[in-house]
């Protein structure tokens, strides 16, 4: 018969109160994106900004290739922000700031 050491007993009690279903909650709508944007774009720094610029420009190019847009404007602003607009479906304009 073996007995539990003090360390094993401590680990067992810590793991039992460490994480449970009562600590899980579901975020609705855009709340998950707002709360944890890095889960969707990889980073909230320069790398994430570049990823967003790539994705938005890629979407604008898709609109043009599908003949839903005839114009795409990409403007690198002096303050470091990027503005991407197209005249496709939704007439979306995105301004991304660093």
Task: Describe the model.
With 98 residues, the chain is of the alpha+beta class. It has helices at 6-18, 31-35, 38-41, 46-65, and strands at residues 72-76, 82-86, 93-96. The radius of gyration is 24 Å and the shape is elongated. The model has no long low-confidence stretch (mean pLDDT 79). It catalyses: ATP-dependent breakage, passage and rejoining of double-stranded DNA. Residues 46-90 form the Histidine kinase/HSP90-like ATPase domain. Belongs to the type II topoisomerase GyrB family.
CATH class: Alpha Beta
Largest sheet: 3 strands, antiparallel
**Tally of contiguous helical segments:** 4
Structural class: alpha+beta
Helix content: 40-55%
What is the averaged pLDDT score? 79
Strand order of the largest sheet: 1-2-3
Distance between the termini: 63 Å
What sort of overall outline do the alpha carbons produce when their principal axes are compared?
elongated
Q: Give the C-alpha Rg.
A: 24 Å
How would you spell out the order of helices and strands? HHHHEEE
CATH superfamily grouping: Histidine kinase-like ATPase, C-terminal domain
Number of domains: 1
Number of strands: 3
**Per CATH, what is the topology?**
Heat Shock Protein 90
CATH-defined architecture: 2-Layer Sandwich
Q: Give the DSSP E fraction (strand runs of 2 or more residues).
A: 5-15%
